[in-house]
UniProtKB/TrEMBL annotation:
Residues 41-262 form the Histidine kinase domain. Keywords: Kinase, Membrane, Phosphoprotein, Transferase, Transmembrane, Transmembrane helix, Two-component regulatory system. One of its GO terms (molecular function) is protein histidine kinase activity. This is histidine kinase. It catalyses: ATP + protein L-histidine = ADP + protein N-phospho-L-histidine. The chain holds residues 170 to 431 of 431 of the full protein. The keyword Ligase does not apply. The keyword Transferase applies. The lineage of its organism: Bacteria, Pseudomonadati, Pseudomonadota, Alphaproteobacteria, Hyphomicrobiales. It comes from the Bacteria. Its EC number is 2.7.13.3.
Amino acid sequence: ERVYRVTASAVGHGSRLHVLLFKDQSEARRIDRMRADFIANASHEMRTPLASIAGFIETLRGPARNDPAAREQFLQIMQNQTGRMARLIDDMLSLSRLEMKPYLKPGARVDVRQVVESVVDSLGPLAKESDLVIERDFADGPMETPGDRDELYQVFENLVENACKYGRDGDRIVVSIARSDKAPQPGIEVTVRDFGPGIPEEHIPRVTERFYRIDSETVQSRKGTGLGLAIVKHILTRHHGRLSIQSELGKGSAFTVYLPTN
Ligand code: ADP
């Protein structure tokens, strides 16, 4: 529909609009390619746990039939794999739900400090499990942004969960909120900082890609789908916000979310 509309208006406006038409078609092709890639990656990610479960069922029926210790171990692995599939499905549903409602409800405003506060409250126990404490450094004053509370909750939840999962070498996580009056417009900055292993420089631009996980022992041993930061980025784009990542090997990472105040 979009391509057709541009074609029609191009008739009266000369060559400049041909460029527009070309851009529009290539954008449509890019989106088609992204969809196809997503389906291919998603199918692959789902096949892996499924193949593992199928393999263990086979073994349980055959060689391990009369070995209670092996049976227990294999059932545990199968349970972990079903958990992995459930997480993948939840994250993929999150992404597709976001894509199906392209616009935010106009007029709604969200108190960012209150959202961050409730994320930190509810993830305190998770941090404790990893021997981490979450420190708060919250500035005073109004911290409202236009947007959707549940979506922003998901943004901060993902970032603090990641800090808990990947920041274990440190002893704390620091969550700070401040007003930012930097150009191009005033806004709110929320930073989630951990003192874990950090992210190798070449991976930093890629961690927000769908299904991207760093191929290290620590990362692979933590539960995850590689979709968390892709969801974060998607939500922030809808909110006219940004994510910036600073990380230093052996020192930790800081994920900063910028949200406009109007
Ligand atoms: P997931 O956590 O499900 O793997 P994410 O999209 O949330 O997926 O993160 C992608 C990858 O980025 C992670 O697998 C990890 O390799 C890296 N990463 C994210 N947050 C951190 C962090 N705080 N410290 C180090 N690495 C991180």
